[in-house]
Design a protein that fits this description.
3 domains; Immunoglobulin-like; about 280 residues; alpha+beta; 4 helices
Length: about 280
């Protein structure tokens, strides 16, 4: 996985002759595509997208540089024609960097950590705590702006329930492969999607929904619970004498659950399912 905004790593090709020795190609070109659309190209006959420069640092060695501006699967295809002809294809997956409900600086101030040694660990724990907060065992609500693509449902009644809510906007709806008019559907604050067209009422339909969820203001109680959840996970991670003392009522957890009581109380008033 490569984060959006980072260059494609090792974007190059090595060319060999029939004996396995490094050898130059007759002509070398590079095309970068996504879903069949050309994003960038370079070399002889380059056509479409951003123009790429291909460097030739040594015998049989060719390289280039490209930073994707879109997410999804990016396909880089090197084509050698003439001498030592051949094709090499590499697939890269581009994703948006994950973000937490609270930031690293906010967590470090809360924990009174002034060094940078554990930044990577704290960042990982922030993401873990954010997932817990948004899970059914946490608040059950999506606080971070999240883009959901083609979420699959089998609708058999008058409504279906989207997995993440509140829903900021519907992007697209298809029913049994047929695109629908988004304006014909309503979504409640709890993620219940309905329509007056009767599509969901007579028989089972395969429905795919794309939408944007979350992204609104985060209440103080949710942020406070997040900070305490990271504190608890950080103490557990460090181990030994740095573990939260289990006799402290604030950090007791019900058997089988990871979320401490202190955090449950902070999230209770904003929970969709209760505790």
């Amino acid at each position: 996985m490569i984060e959006l905004g980072d260059p494609l790593p090792d974007l190059g090709v090595d060319v060999f002759d029939d004996t396995g020795s490094p050898s130059d190609g007759g002509a070398v070109s590079l095309t970068i595509t996504r879903d069949g659309v050309t994003l960038a190209s370079g070399g002889p006959g380059a056509s479409g997208g951003t123009l790429l420069t291909i460097t030739h640092p040594g015998t049989g060695l060719y390289s280039s540089a490209y930073t994707p501006l879109v997410t999804g699967q990016i396909v880089a295809t090197w084509t050698v024609t003439g001498a030592n002809a051949g094709v090499q294809t590499t697939v890269y997956t581009i994703e948006v960097p994950p973000v937490g409900i609270v930031g690293l600086d906010e967590v470090k101030r809360h924990l009174r950590i002034y060094r940078n040694d554990d930044d990577d660990t704290l960042t990982s724990l922030i993401l873990e705590a954010s997932d817990l907060c948004e899970s059914p065992e946490g608040s059950g609500i999506c606080w971070r702006r999240t883009v959901v693509t083609d979420e699959a449902h089998s609708a058999t009644g008058g409504a279906l329930y989207l997995s993440k809510f509140p829903v900021a906007s519907l992007t697209s709806v298809t029913v049994s492969g047929v695109a629908q008019t988004v304006a014909d559907f309503d979504v409640s604050p709890g993620g219940m999607m309905t329509t007056e067209s009767g599509l969901f009422s007579s028989r089972s339909y395969d429905v795919k929904v794309s939408y944007v969820a979350g992204g609104g203001p985060v209440p103080a109680a949710i942020r406070g619970g997040m900070l305490e959840m990271v504190r608890y996970l950080y103490g557990t991670h460090r181990g030994g004498s740095n573990l939260p003392r289990q006799e402290e009522p604030d950090y007791n957890t019900v058997s089988g659950f990871l979320i401490p009581n202190r955090v449950k109380m902070a999230w209770r008033s904003h929970s969709s399912v209760g505790f």
